Amino acid sequence: MASPVPVLRTGLSSASHLRRSGSASPTSTASSVGSTPAFPPRKRRRSGRPPPLLGLAVYDGFYPAREPHPSAKRALALARKADFEYYFVPPVPKEEAWGWFPLDARDGRVLIQSKYFPDDDSDGGDIPRPRFMNYAVCDPLFKRYVLLPPIPHDLTINEGRLVNFGLCLAPSQEDEVSTSFRVICVANYKAKLVVFVFSSMTRQWGIATSSTWTSLGGGTELKSLLTAMDWGALFHVDGCFYWTVPSADKILVLDALKMELSVISYAHRVDAGFQACIAVDRQGTPGMLTVGEYLGNREFRLSRIAKQSDHGSPNERLSENIIQLPDYHNEYVTLGAAEGFIFLRGVPEDDDDEEDPDWEPAEVEYYSLNVKTGEFESVCTMDRDKCYDSVCPYFRFSPPSAQPCV
């Protein structure tokens, strides 16, 4: 049975707020994604067979897995039918935006942000003031979408100054309608963290939970660490989201089913500026996490730690596995983790070679590392100017098995 969804404190009524804000109304959006009474929405049920990795969604489009990857044929079938340029989603704001780009992908859906970056007022410095932008959730294969309304002002007015924030797709739950979804926004305010949740069922944003720095057990030190954290670099494992901080021993945890925030201390983090990632194999042990850390010199460490948070002492490694990555490249960059895989990008050997003016850009290789088996596979290649530091791995059953998810 699905875990109960926490009660949200919602803002203004969805219809009245959307009318005032000028965003698309729930009715107009639903016309592109709704089901007719004759065909009621299906319920989502867990399958014993997980969907395969089909490729990587990035800023400039979709790169399907290529041969000899086991999903290459299915990935090509998806790429031929899906639209990862998101042309089926209308630009927001109209006549000012020039498209969309992906922020997160999960359960076949893609969370996208408008390619519209207005001039921002800064706080007296060179860093723009953070602000919520225009977002949508879409199904690239069936070309369905939902435009997200802005977070209502009455939900944010009492929270103080916004420092930074990040959005992600919540994991699906059993017995939910297969086209329903939730979007999570974790907002870092000056005095606390606030978690907003958008539900496709209500078409409203609400506050799911919040925590002060003191209640998280970190105080001023934790606050300063999270202020500098990349909120887009998150990892989802078994219904929880994890954010790691480079060169620090803290891992922020959001249980997306219970809507609870906590902090895990981990004493064995690398301190050379690399960022660890959180992963688990698809048949992972309950209560256990795998922390993946690139150590340099083509060495990758997988450490098993306990999942529980402990404000007092750091969680010790329960096991460790050092994997020597192939010598295809001098170094690798960790991009993220999803569905039991860690994703990496090779660093071309001539990255620092500026002596040859006739040098032609080389392709950059992207890889996956299976947490359970240690298998290292090439996923795809991109032109050298596509050296992304984050990607959205796209897992889905390919046509004709795929079903609409928005």
From TrEMBL:
Membrane-spanning intervals of the chain: none
Record domain F-box protein AT5G49610-like beta-propeller: where: 104-275
Annotated spans, Disordered: 1-52
Pfam families on file: Beta-prop_AT5G49610-like
Biased composition (Low complexity): 21-37
Name of this protein: F-box protein AT5G49610-like beta-propeller domain-containing protein
Organism: Urochloa decumbens
Native organism taxonomy: Eukaryota, Viridiplantae, Streptophyta, Embryophyta, Tracheophyta
